[in-house]
Design goal:
Layout: H1 2-22, H2 26-59
Helix pairs in contact: 1-2
């Protein structure tokens, strides 16, 4: 679920960033960039969790 939410945050952030850029709304643009970063972090954390579970399964 974390990976999917991370991707969704990245898409939402990109949209906010683009709208902010087109409307010269720096606040919205920065919020969009921050949301994209949050999405990347969440996606990376989900990937790391999956890798750790797989490593644990291999040791059994």
């Amino acid at each position: 679920m974390g990976k999917l939410k991370g991707k969704a945050d990245q898409v939402k952030g990109k949209t906010k960033e683009e709208v902010g850029s087109m409307t010269d709304d720096e606040s919205m643009e920065m919020k969009g960039k921050a949301q994209k970063v949050k999405g990347r972090v969440e996606e990376s954390a989900a990937d790391a969790g999956t890798r750790m579970r797989r490593m644990g399964e291999k040791k059994r």
